[in-house]
Amino acid sequence: MLVNRKLILAHFWLAFAVFGIALTLGAWQMFIRSPIGTWLSNPELYYRSLTAHGTVMGYVFPTLVAMGFGYAISESALEQRLVGVRWAWTGFWLIVIGSVMAVIPVALGRASVLYTFYPPLIGNVFYYLGVVLVVVGSWIWVALMSINLRVWRKAHPGAPVPLAMFANVAGAYLWAWTAVGAALELLLQIIPVAAGLKATIDAGLARVFFSWTLHAIVYFWLMPTYIAYYTIVPRAIGGRVYSDSMARISFILFLVVAMPIGMHHTFADPMVGAGFKFIHSAFTALVALPTLLTVFTICASVEIAARLRGGRGMFGWIRALPWDNPMMLALAFSFVMLGFGGAGGLINMSYQLDASIHNTQWITGHFHLIFGGAIVIMYFAIAYDLWPHLTGRELIDLRLIRTQLWLWFIGMIVTTFPWHWVGILGMPRRMAYFDFGDPAIAPQALSVTFSAIGGFILLASGILFLVILARGMRAPQAEAGPYRFALAVHQPATVPIALNTHALWVALMIALTLTNYGYPILTLAMTEGTSVPAVYVGAQ
Amino acid sequence: MSARDLFTFSNPHFTRGVGITAAILIVTAIVGFIVLPFAQPWVQFANVWDAICSAAGVPQRAPVVAAPGHEKRLSEVVLTSNTLARPSQEAIGRGATLAQRCAICHGPTGISRADSPNLAGQYAAVIYKELHDFRSGARTNAVMSPFAVNLTDQEIADLSLYYAYLPRLPAYHPTPQLPKPNIVIYGAPMRGIAPCGSCHGSLDNKTGSPWLEGQSEAYMKAQLQAFASGERRNDISQQMRNIARAMTPQEIEQAAAYYASQPPDVVKAVD
């Protein structure tokens, strides 16, 4: 039951439109610092573009997808009209206003601080205020998801919450809490300096606050993808979810252990004690657990579909899968990229191994493979799956959709594999210019060239994606029927209270944040003399 | 179903969830705060509490040891982008009077004919820092140091504001403009050298960095050599020393010749 289609479509269209712009900037960046581009002679333009690319891809695009998908889940999984539609539109417009407010100073070169802010570098205050508005807009969504679930519970006391909605609300709570770190950094530290009320900033504390957000935000980006794995893919390929409980446990584990692990981003920083770094490293290892559970459950679910289609043998069933189904293709691509990206992630989280790839192109390669690859390809799949239900028109050209997914997969591999490689060779990240004529890095020129070509393949795929969705708006009308989610092999009649509510897990998430972040933040905040003069972007 | 059924030890999910989480936290804390610190043979701890404090990152005062004797003083000037941001007319006027004694080298209009820096239109923060450093001895020069040593804070600020207020005039000895050498626009990334223009104007300007267009070639070359040899050491965080050390003699000459041949910004704008 999708009633507020316009609301959901608005979120998706805005998400994909800004994604298209940021993707173009990304491809340009790959090109301009590769040996095939001619250097601009002005690094500031590069960092301006990088700031816009990161801000859109990190904050605006995934948040809008999670919100739009969340509203769709709330209406269709709960079979209940969305409560608070007016608030939902308010959240949407806050994001629109926030994005415009942030992008103007970036375009003017007044806020080339990258999306990770990097204090003591300080940009124009409107950039930060814009980001705050985007976050506030998304918090409205968090509240609405919680309220809608509560309304449904009142009407269905004791009934198991549909898996899609359970996961969706888990994602919303995770986001609400993880965004607090960056919000504290912005409101208490950066904005007072950007507004001219203070001239110094504690950069170490700011980095700790940001690490609170920076890692768990990845799991917030990941949530729609995992929801699609569990609740869309099995239905789309004619199978069933292998285990409803396993799915719930995975989402619960994300809620608990995605949060207290962010300090593996500060391994090389001096302001955090080694003991805390170790704890964060150990908890980061734990976060592989829900992913491994998911890979197992989804492979089992897919096998069910294959055997229902007549697949036989230990591995023979793989051939019986509906490979011409875009959802099947997207899942397979996503898993391959998740596998490689996850393996790379295990290296990043290891205190010692991280030292060899810290601040190199490996890191950029890693998060593009995981986020741009494994996660975003499922965003495409979600859009393709939802589109006929939102527009009332069919997406006819499956071949074009498959081509788009193939291009994205190939493009992402061609972009990120050489990217990892040059990182291992020691090529630093966040550099606007490389002198490939220098014998020390001349051998890396070929890898970087491949990477840039991959960037253009990705751009082609992104354009194709937008074309397919736009054509879908004009296709002949067709009733797609109600939007449904996958059923489990054993559809639960009752679910233990702990697996049907979030309170216990949210409490554990907050408790672990306090144990793992409390002391480092308190000492940094209370130690005198840890602030440094702010460096204003573009100031004389 | 209510919160009371959830948060109770009779609920196995609660007991296991909280128990496993707490157990993992305790085990990792013991390993991280006690086992691993002692596993480092190169660090000595007095006791377990000492190890825990070290691993937790408790801020510690450095042990009081006699400060090594400074043969040369270090710069103590703190600059922000707000330093001397709001000049008053009175301060500029006082600075003009004081500047009479500088004119013999730096020229009556702030344009030098003696291979000293042109000060007309230089950033106030730059002159402020250099005068402070000359006064404290962080930077020394046989001619300049005696002039600076008796200046008060007020006089230094006034002089800085006065010179910043003067228009940037074309240098007295311009040579035909040279093409931009690589060191100025690209730097040398593989040797850790940022482009000159990323701090000294043309690409970007950073607080405390002077603009260099039209300055004396001999002066700039001498300063780069002084930075490279460590004779001059009043740069912030060794920025210029690190760069100058990594530059080749040829690059030093190219950079100095290029900047000397350039007209100052204002003249460029008129062109």
Automatic annotation (TrEMBL), chain A:
One of its GO terms (molecular function) is cytochrome-c oxidase activity. It comes from the Bacteria. The chain crosses the membrane at residues 12-32, 52-73, 85-106, 126-151, 172-197, 209-233, 245-263, 283-306, 327-347, 367-384, 405-425, 445-469. The keyword Glycoprotein does not apply. GO terms for cellular component: membrane. GO terms for biological process: aerobic respiration. Keywords: Electron transport, Membrane, Respiratory chain, Transmembrane, Transmembrane helix, Transport. Residues 1-536 form the Cytochrome oxidase subunit I profile domain. PANTHER family: CYTOCHROME C OXIDASE SUBUNIT 1, CYTOCHROME C OXIDASE SUBUNIT I. This is Cytochrome c oxidase subunit 1. It comes from Bradyrhizobium huanghuaihaiense.
From TrEMBL, chain B:
InterPro entries: Cyt_c-like_dom, Cyt_c-like_dom_sf, Cytochrome_c_Oxidase_Subunit. Residues 90-167, 182-263 form the Cytochrome c domain. GO terms for molecular function: electron transfer activity; heme binding; metal ion binding. Keywords: Electron transport, Heme, Iron, Membrane, Metal-binding, Transmembrane, Transmembrane helix, Transport. The keyword Membrane applies. Signal peptide: none annotated. The chain crosses the membrane at residues 20-39. It comes from the Bacteria. PROSITE patterns: CYTC (PS51007). This is Cytochrome c553. It comes from Bradyrhizobium huanghuaihaiense. The lineage of its organism: Bacteria, Pseudomonadati, Pseudomonadota, Alphaproteobacteria, Hyphomicrobiales.
